[in-house]
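lol so apparently i was supposed to do this last week
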Amino acid sequence: MACLHKKTNKEMLALLFCGLFLFLGWYFETKIDLLAIIFYIISFIIGGFAKLKEGLILLLKDKELNANILMFLSVIGAAAIGFWLEGGILIFIFALSGALESYTLNKSEKDLSSLIKLKPETASVLVGKDEKRVLVEEVKIGDLVIVRPFEKIPVDGVVVEGVSAVNQAMITGESLLVEKKAKDKVYAGTMNGQGSLIIKVTCLSNQSLFARIIKLVQEAKENVPKKQLKIRNFEKIYTKVILVLTFFLILLPYLFLGFSLSYALYRAMVFLVVATPCAIVASIMPAVLAAMSNGARKGVLFKSGVQLEALANAKIIAFDKTGTLTTGILEVTDFEIFEKKMSVEDFFKAVGSIESLSEHPIAKAIVRKAKALKLNLELPTQFKALAGMGVKAFYDGVEWQIGKPELILEKGEFDESLLKEESKTVVLVKRDGKVIGKIFLSDTVRKNAANVISKLRKLGLKVAMVTGDGSIPAEKIAEVAGIDYYFSCLLPEEKLEKIKKLKKEFGSIAMVGDGVNDTPAMVEADISIAMGRIGSDFVLETADVVLMNDDLEKLPYIISLGRRMNRIIKQNLVFAVFVIIFLIFVNFLQVISLPFGVIGHESSTILVILNSLRLLK
Ligand code: ADP
Ligand code: MG
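anyway here it is w/ adenosine-5'-diphosphate bound
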């Protein structure tokens, strides 16, 4: 980051000196020839160094010519036929466009990193029987840290309790699950699986989400939009064609049209200058970076620019329910205990203890209820999350399951009174093979959900909802929020199937979610958006776009932003191509001089970049 900032400063300084020596060269041109040429050469070197280096690196990497190299050939050509000043202006403006590009890049990186600071990385440390959420920097060696299912392991340590499959892709680069049990080492940044772990910290944390996101943004720059890739391929072929044409433009008029060699060379140089595709090449990336930067300042993290393109093209947007359309802060409103001998306290002590190891909004509500009853919770053992279904664990020596009726009830066990559909979310509790209770929870729809959905509709999108919850709560929320299509009682894989179907029917699809149960569907969607606050680490890692403040209002905004970006890129390309064709045409009519060619060509590049910078606003 700091290094990029320095780069922009260095570029500005180079620009300044390039201009200064250019001026000196021009000043002495009519007075002392040799001195003028020396000044020009100095100005060429200072102004052209960065771009030439960039061009050469690309040349060595691709073994293909690129616009930068063409540019330098035209500068050398211009100087060779005595047009030093024009060559200098070419270099100067070329360096200016480079500095402008770095400025956008710098700005977008700064905005992105300031955004990341919004979500500090924390760890749940066990203090006696209680747990405390602290910043990872404050975790000490020897502390016991609880890692819930699908959370990122915040520090390096050794497992003391629990069994879970951990995804170590963060360190090994391979998405392989490694089974971890007591005494195994676990590493910060790796992703916990279904089990819950308690780990003893063995080493202090310096590795922050911040550092990782910078890496991510760095990668995002390499993850170039499809359009940019097409342009790069085009650039390779185009550059070769232009060089061959230039060669013939020197030769043919000289041989057949009676041009003098120097005049033929002059015309060919004008051609080379105006035909160089700088403006086309500069049409996309600055626009993408400016748009990403704009998003970052509004609390939206784009992991790469490709995603804005996808967002602009989305035809339908699918929402998860709990935690996405609703606040995800549920409340236990009611419960029934079927076991006569069991007291309310015993019941909630058990379910609260078991759910204390889950990250699910339902679990949090049950734990809150247990704590409200002033119960001392204990940790269960062999805890396992069953995504989209519920949880199971051992407590008091027997196995418990808490979750949706479909999970709890075996075939044939269907009891009308248990399954009677409620407008509230229902979970059943099973202890040692026997259903012993049921809990009702209610959730509130986010305040702005209906408003956001109507805005999305106005943007021409269809709106769907896919939820794991029962059909009556789903219907109620779909109605309040104004959803076109909704699907309930879905397992994670069924959510994926629904997304596939919607995609086939409507075209490009976006999916917004917060839970682990949403991730298969999110991967299937053309573009996935995660709720940054309520979302679990696993979802944040998987999603293409993160709404840092869980603000649904940002959805219509980013879709408009993506569309605006596409529009600006289109304008840029049309304009750039038009200018090139026009200048080539007037050069054939022999009515354009080299200085005008230089100015026409370079100002189109600068204009294109300035047009893109409008996206910062
Ligand atoms: P949504 O798709 O609406 O976000 P989920 O797929 O996360 O909902 O959950 C689906 C259902 O699975 C819930 O309605 C609940 O019945 C059950 N469930 C999931 N996790 C838990 C848990 N930790 N405790 C109890 N029930 C759970
Ligand atoms: Mg959810």
